[in-house]
Specification:
The chain is an alpha/beta fold. It is built from ten helices and eleven strands.
Length: 313
């Protein structure tokens, strides 16, 4: 198949490109800063010569958007919104204008669209969309606004010959340097991987191989459209999540952190505490109902596999 990955140079794009290329697919990446073979320049906002690669392709997986690993300043939040909405809009325009449009358009979204909660898991049918939770910072609602605007742009696109799926993805765990697993592992190995703010908040995640398998599954299932949660079926509290990660690395203890300590750490890492403190209890209802079987459904086994792969590099 011919597969186009707008914004495919980040961590998730690297995971997907590597696997799809190894499987024998022709993969083209749209990038603002192309550097290698198969990378095509685009600005993520306006139609241009890059649109020619979408015409005649089989699959588009749009991953474009400013990284969320940053301080959530007003400027950065606006950049997150604009980069996601603009790229989704222009990808939709390219598909609409294609003489031979792709059969399926997978649009990256995020599990952050769901509410911060502890009482029940969020699936696609019964999950609670966030933005109105009491007792959380106001700007957390803007993250939900970004996600809903992102999905709405895909939904509104006039692409009647192309099936559309919104990938509400949890954190994709891969052994690549600079990814979320790398950052969390560094903390665990330094003895800093204890619970944050009590550790009750749920962590939703997905192993990189299962992420790729889920994308391939969705490409092949022409009966699935709309939002789909890409998350392992067993989210767990942060305290248990970090305990399993420390166990995989053979680190017996991890210092706990209070909320204000997490704020200081996030500031030093130029990141934001929402990534640590929001309880993302997300489960893959539609994938499981459609018969998808996870290879790594439980975090301890997934973490052990990822650590093994890091050590084998």
């Amino acid at each position: 198949m011919k597969i186009v990955l707008p914004g495919g140079t980040g961590q998730v794009g690297t995971v997907l490109r590597r696997a799809l290329t190894a499987a024998g697919h022709e993969v083209a990446v749209l990038s603002r800063r192309p550097t290698g073979h198969g990378e095509i320049p685009w600005d993520g906002r306006t139609l241009g010569p890059w649109a020619e690669v979408i015409d005649g392709s089989d699959v588009v997986v749009n991953l474009a958007g400013r990284s969320v690993s940053c301080r959530y300043t007003p400027d950065n939040l606006r950049a997150m919104m604009d980069s996601r909405v603009d790229s989704a809009r222009v990808v939709g325009q390219a598909i609409a204008a294609a003489a031979r449009p792709p059969e399926v358009w997978l649009q990256m979204s995020t599990a952050t669209v769901y509410a911060h909660r502890f009482d029940a898991p969020n699936d696609e049918a019964t999950g609670v969309i966030g933005g109105a939770e009491p007792g959380v910072p106001d700007y957390w609602g803007y993250s939900v606004d970004i996600a809903t605007a992102w999905e709405r742009e895909q939904e509104m696109a006039d692409t009647p010959h192309t099936r559309k799926v919104a990938l509400r993805a949890a954190m994709v765990m891969s052994p690549d340097r600079g990814g979320v697993f790398d950052v969390l592992s560094r903390l665990a190995r330094l003895g800093l991987g204890g619970p944050v703010a009590g550790g009750r908040q749920y962590v939703s995640w997905i192993h990189d191989h299962d992420f790729v398998r889920a994308v391939e599954f969705l490409v092949g299932r022409d009966d699935l459209a709309g939002p789909v949660n890409l998350a392992a079926p067993a989210p767990l509290p942060h305290r248990a999540f970090m305990r399993a990660l420390r166990g995989a690395w053979g680190v017996p203890v991890g210092l706990p952190a209070t909320k204000w300590m997490a704020e200081l750490g996030a500031f030093a890492l130029r990141s934001d505490t929402e990534l640590l403190l929001k309880s993302r209890r997300v489960v893959p209802g539609r994938l499981l109902d459609a018969g998808f079987a996870f290879d790594r459904p439980e975090w301890p086994g997934a973490a052990a596999d990822l650590v093994r792969r890091v050590r084998g590099r």
